[in-house]
From TrEMBL:
It comes from marine sediment metagenome. GO terms for molecular function: 4 iron, 4 sulfur cluster binding; oxidoreductase activity. This is Molybdopterin oxidoreductase domain-containing protein. Coiled coil: none annotated. Keywords: 4Fe-4S, Iron, Iron-sulfur, Metal-binding, Molybdenum, Oxidoreductase, Signal. InterPro entries: Prok_Mopterin_Oxidored (IPR050612).
Amino acid sequence: AASEVTTVPPETIRRLAREFGEAARIGSTIAIEGQELPYRPAAATYFGGAYGHDNAWLTSLAVDLLNQVVGASDVPGGLLGCDPLSYGHPQTGMPHWAPQADDDGLLLPNEPQGVVGGKPGESDQLHNWRGLGGWPITTCLTPLTAAVRDRSSSDYQPEVLINCGSNLLMGLPNPEVSFEAFKDCFVISFNLFSDETAEALADIVLPDACYLERLDPLPNWPGHDLPAGMGDWGYQIRQPAVEPLGERRHFCEVLLEVGQRVGFSDGMNGRANLLYG
């Protein structure tokens, strides 16, 4: 059945399953700092190739289950997920995050981000688009979530969208849904070149700097894309190799300057302290 659905020959499926199971060394252990832990030197992971198509949710779950079957989740040699808990640097206690209970009392993983000071708005769900929490900052804005607001009883409506480093309309399936979700917003888009988001949505398009032209103190997400291991943990720094062409500017520099001009310096510095610890 699997071969018919995937068009992968049965012998290939059996070979890959056997090799994956053997590589996982089920039952083996390893001693780390005096603690005996499961050792599973095999893992299955995925990115946009799995969740950028039809049936993406089920496809992603199926890949995740491969690690569960051989016991390779969050163990040495296996697949390490984003850390659900951080006590921060010994000197500062930051950045700090930990699981918490959701409205139903279920365990809710947290992220290495959060708001600084203030109180979120009274609206519970619409103000909490993945970390928005009543604040106009989010790193992962799902257009489908945004579109739901039109079917709610809340009068909350986003008015401004600042798009940085992405082609929002084409980044997910169903670009028409993304367009409908944000067509009434005043849109500012930073990019290296004109794209669908700039042409169809943006009111203002500003030239961004590419990665070779930028100084970035945090080029990767704190809980992701960073090497795991027993060594000291730290942030990478990306240094520019060439000067920006024309009038290009790092979008972060532009946003910081705007924030300073309108009096957001304390809030921006507070968030930076939260992130960098």
